[in-house]
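Researcher: We plan to redesign the surface later, but first we want a full-length starting point. Tokens attached.
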């Protein structure tokens, strides 16, 4: 069956797919111009296929340099202007792309985005084990025990 999701996304857990889909929409109530738009567009281009060959969806794909510059501007100036909920959608989507994308170059770029966002928020980078447990579809996984321990 055809899907708008790229093949690498279809192979992820539903939880990881949900994280990515939560970040493909822009933030309501703020200007659509700024580094958050570049990052949102970059996430869309990594995760989704366009249903049309023309139109606004694929009219502009940010370059690696534009994503790097947007990350710096986002973490330096924009965190305070955005709802935290939206910022966390971007952060967690960057984490999924950094950990699971099939292209090493893309993983590196989004790993930089994720790391800069985490540090800008004075948080710690999530370990791979914690990440996989948290976003597992297995209802009987270690997730509840993991959360209870506060790891």
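Model: Full-length starting sequence:
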């Amino acid at each position: 069956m055809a899907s708008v999701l790229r093949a690498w996304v279809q192979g992820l857990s539903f939880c990881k797919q949900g994280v990515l889909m939560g970040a493909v929409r822009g933030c309501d109530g703020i200007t659509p111009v700024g580094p958050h738009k570049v990052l949102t567009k970059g996430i869309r281009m990594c995760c989704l296929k366009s249903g049309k060959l023309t139109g606004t969806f694929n009219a502009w794909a940010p370059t690696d340099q534009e994503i790097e510059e947007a990350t710096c501007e986002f973490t330096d100036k924009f965190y305070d202007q955005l709802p935290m909920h939206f910022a966390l959608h971007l952060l967690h989507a960057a984490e999924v792309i950094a950990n699971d994308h099939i292209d090493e170059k893309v993983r590196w770029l989004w790993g930089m985005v994720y790391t800069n966002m985490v540090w800008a928020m004075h948080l710690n980078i999530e370990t791979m084990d914690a990440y996989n447990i948290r976003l597992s579809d297995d209802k009987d996984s270690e997730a509840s025990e993991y959360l209870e321990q506060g790891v």
